[in-house]
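Everyone, carefully examine this protein record:
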Amino acid sequence: MNSHPLLSRRNALLACALALASSASFAAWPNDKMPIRLMVPWPAGGATDQIGRLLTQPLSEALGVPVIVENKGGAGGVIGTQQFVKDKPDGHSILLATSSTNAAAPHLYARLGYEPITDFTPVVSLCEIPNVMVVPAKSPWNSLHDVVAAAKKDPGKYTYGSAGIGGSQHLAGAQFKTAAGIDIRHIPYKGSGPAAQDLIAGHIDMMLDTGSLGSIRGGMLKPLAVASEKRLPALPKVPTFKEAGTPMLASAWYGLMLPAHAPAEVVTRLNTEVNKILKNPEIHQRLVDMGAIVMGGSAEEFAKFSASEVKRYEGIVRDSGAPKE
């Protein structure tokens, strides 16, 4: 039976009004009276913070509103991420997600406070940074062989720092211990910045870091090996772990995520703008100079990748021997 003409017209007007409301809602994003907060769940100074700050100005210019980094460190990035998932999915709160917070952490904390897949809306993959073995400039070690020999001579004497339990530096250090068959002690910090400062000062002996290029170029740290398949363009004279006699691969990845149920239009816009930024020659080169492998791509690709990493890190964390807290 046909609908009454007045009801049909009313339904059509209602549908039109809803469409216009939806369009107006998206047109209002980003709200020019609200800054966009980029949550970096680590203290200032580390690789994650450097990447976040590299994005803020070009993203602000593209969107027409201020983009501000908020550092919230602690528990290997977990504290800031726990806070982030409580935010509204309106596009005004973005997480700089990492392999530590969104892949390793679920296997390290019994009460994580968030689900690594269902509590997030993946937007775009940014880059991957292989870990680099670094020691203080005044260290007597000049090769990876020197580190291994010293650690075998005095088991348990030497220390390696990290940004926190479950972070890329911690897990890379655990991989190194297994690969080299040595006993070195883990010293966790509340971020890679504080850990690197103590390393430079000589309070710890080594670190498998992802953000030390500036300190290396400044002569404060010595790089001994990179945990990648090939040598890094930023460190062409530094051998890979395989070339140095202890084969292993370790890296950290970084990407942008929104809280769960973010509007598709916001995801698409952010993905488009960030991909443009990553292709900008100056930004691309600055990431390469950090030792990064630039990625980019679609939101769907990042969603698939990040989900697969949750599964992959289960084995990495198990093999590291890190206790579940």
